[in-house]
Design the sequence.
């Protein structure tokens, strides 16, 4: 194990500049304690377990995975709604792990958050103007006219025009697409550096989805935003993100550019996800889809080694079921955590020192 | 057409009475379904898809107004039956349904085994033991472990609950199953699993399906035919080969371009505007305000143009096929 001070020295010697990233996550662990009878310790839910992520301004990363794989826990930790139990999260170079509420307020001003269910994310008794005014009031903009002009500006950006028609409407008077536009406007009104979008289109109608995704992309380009886009739908991802991270059972198992992930898929789980995503094609009727057996594992007692091994056809016994796979570098920023790619350079050995043989990787 | 028709719907209407007027949710729907085939009903939300399912199964809410037309199930005219006869002879015996968000439609305080066995006890006078035996067989069929029979819905994952709901619809071996958005709340792998199950059911039991969805990509997994619904009416019925490669109606074309695709690099587009209110739908073609090809004739009611089995309701095809 490398001591923390030692780690600092290494970083200093390599001259790592944390400021160049909007968001930098290292070895993040988010565990939730389970309690029996309300007080007795009964293990942990390992919602996020060893996640690394680096995001620069103007970049978009999509995090893809099934429900229960820890996507939302990861996102909530970025917003510091959950406290990380291990690892670090840096926002604009500052570690946010143990910030107090005053410092957090500063940080959260720079992070916009687009919720999954727009209707559930807005107070039903507030009209659009009140909803959009709230963040401005909280962040100390006292001039009423300035608030109104900023609201109008942001509503024009999300194409809710003519603005006057919508200012006094309540959420239930808006269509699903319009509701989501207001949620996006609320996320954008404080000019954030980072936008976190949690399944922003999964509750919307198919024809409106594309409209909202295009709007998000236009905003991203115009404001040079960093965006984390969380979804389970691979088909929408490729129109939106340069990088796709695939998450399974609390870990990121493959990271690649959009084109590489779809055309040079490496991890067996990513293969399965892609195979299960249909394109409209009349030939689909005649074929059964290939689906790996079983369901995602419990995060209380995840399988040892590679967490996908019980469902994986290419499992190497004695290896995949014992050791957590290293992260191998396939070149061109394509990283995969899978023993099938041993032989490629190791990008991350999870702190396990290689000494001819792999030392036992304690979970 | 020599093949046997399971379902024939003629001029089916279902209106709802609200304080703001009559909502014409299903307004003159016609289509036929052949045995052992699946028809997919696609359209934006609010175009009357779910109301169509309810109208076919006669599951009417309290505020239902006009309810008319003819629905033939094989040779029975179901609309002529009294409610009690309909309940005894048709619903769940010959036609059943997997409701929208089926995972939440199970009764939380009953064991899933009891819920799946109930239709057999109710409709075929089976005793409990026999019904449970059948339920167990059905569980195997849909891929739920048999010992789940005595579990409660909250103990099951979303995919498992969906399978239970499908088992419940299948247990009486109906001729027709209506699936209302069966996978919209599920993950992609679970979704693929459910569609594999539906395909197998279709092959093994010769069941027909009406699949109601707005997800065109996954609907192609099951579709033999596609019916496009817009503002309470069906505007096109095509076989799946035609629809997924080259649909007729301008609305269908727009729907197809709005689908994000994984394998082909095309920029998806969205449909400008929104569907008209069903309180007072426009006369003539209901899509004309959003249609890129609209012309003066579209203000009149469009004719139904027949292309050897497929048909489309659009003025653009006037003179290009037989008028029905």
Sequence:
């Amino acid at each position: 194990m490398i001591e923390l001070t030692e780690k600092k020295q290494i970083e200093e010697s390599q001259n790592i500049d944390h400021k160049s990233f909007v968001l930098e996550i290292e070895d993040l662990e988010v565990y939730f304690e389970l309690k029996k009878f309300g007080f007795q310790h009964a293990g942990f839910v390992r919602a996020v377990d060893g996640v690394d992520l680096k995001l620069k301004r103007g970049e978009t990363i999509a995090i893809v995975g099934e429900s229960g794989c820890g996507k939302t826990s990861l996102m909530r930790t970025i917003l510091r709604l959950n406290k990380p139990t291990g690892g670090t999260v840096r926002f604009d170079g500052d570690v946010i792990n143990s910030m107090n509420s005053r410092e957090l307020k500063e940080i959260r001003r720079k992070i916009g958050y687009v919720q999954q269910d727009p209707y559930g994310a807005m107070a039903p008794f507030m009209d659009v103007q009140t909803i959009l005014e709230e963040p401005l009031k909280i962040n100390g903009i006292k001039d009423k006219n300035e608030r109104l002009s900023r609201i109008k500006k942001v509503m024009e950006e999300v194409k809710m025009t003519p603005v006057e028609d919508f200012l006094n409407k309540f959420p239930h008077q808006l269509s699903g697409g319009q509701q989501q536009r207001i949620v996006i406007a609320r996320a954008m009104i404080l000019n954030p550096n980072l936008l976190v979008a949690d399944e922003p289109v999964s509750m919307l109608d198919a024809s409106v989805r594309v409209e909202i995704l295009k709007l998000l992309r236009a905003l991203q380009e115009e404001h040079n935003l960093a965006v984390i886009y969380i979804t389970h739908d691979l088909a929408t991802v490729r129109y939106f993100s340069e990088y796709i991270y695939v998450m399974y059972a609390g870990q990121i198992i493959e990271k690649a550019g959009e084109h590489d992930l779809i055309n040079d898929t490496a991890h067996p789980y990513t293969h399965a996800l892609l195979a299960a995503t249909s394109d409209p094609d009349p030939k689909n009727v005649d074929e059964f889809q290939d689906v790996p057996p079983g369901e995602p594992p419990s995060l209380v007692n995840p399988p040892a080694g590679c967490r996908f091994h019980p469902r994986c056809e290419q499992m190497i016994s004695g290896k995949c079921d014992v050791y957590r796979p290293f992260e191998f570098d396939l070149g061109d920023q394509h990283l995969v955590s899978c023993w099938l790619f041993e032989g490629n350079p190791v990008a991350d050995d999870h702190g396990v020192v290689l000494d001819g043989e792999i030392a036992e990787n304690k979970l | 057409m020599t093949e046997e028709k399971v379902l024939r719907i003629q001029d089916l209407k279902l209106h709802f009475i609200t304080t703001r007027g009559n909502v014409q949710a299903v307004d003159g729907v016609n289509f036929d379904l052949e045995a052992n085939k699946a028809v997919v009903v696609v359209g934006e939300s609010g175009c009357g898809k779910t109301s169509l399912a309810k109208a076919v199964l006669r599951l009417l809410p309290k505020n239902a107004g006009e309810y008319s037309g003819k629905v033939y199930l094989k040779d029975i005219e179901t609309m002529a039956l009294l409610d009690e006869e309909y309940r005894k002879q048709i619903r769940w015996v010959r036609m059943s349904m997997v409701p929208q968000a089926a995972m939440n439609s199970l009764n939380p305080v009953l064991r899933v085994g009891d819920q799946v066995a109930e239709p057999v006890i109710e409709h075929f006078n089976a005793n409990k033991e026999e019904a449970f035996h059948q339920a167990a067989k059905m569980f195997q069929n849909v891929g739920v472990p048999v010992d789940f029979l005595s579990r409660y819905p909250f103990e099951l994952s979303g995919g498992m609950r969906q399978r239970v709901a499908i088992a419940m619809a299948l247990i009486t071996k109906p001729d027709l199953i209506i699936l209302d958005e069966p996978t919209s709340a599920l993950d992609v792998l679970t979704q693929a699993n459910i569609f594999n199950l539906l395909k197998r059911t279709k092959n093994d039991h010769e069941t027909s399906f009406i699949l109601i969805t707005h997800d065109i990509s996954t609907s192609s997994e099951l579709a033999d035919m596609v019916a496009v619904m817009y503002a309470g009416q069906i505007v096109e019925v095509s076989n799946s080969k035609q629809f997924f490669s080259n649909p007729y109606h301008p609305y269908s074309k727009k729907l197809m371009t709005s689908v994000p695709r994984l394998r082909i690099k095309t920029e998806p587009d969205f449909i400008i505007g929104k569907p008209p209110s069903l309180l007072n739908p426009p006369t003539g073609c209901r899509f004309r305000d959003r249609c890129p090809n609209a012309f003066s004739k579209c203000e009149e009611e469009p004719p139904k143009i027949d292309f050897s089995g497929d048909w489309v309701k659009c003025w653009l095809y006037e003179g290009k096929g037989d008028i029905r």
Summary: The first strand of chain B starts at residue 5 and ends at 18.
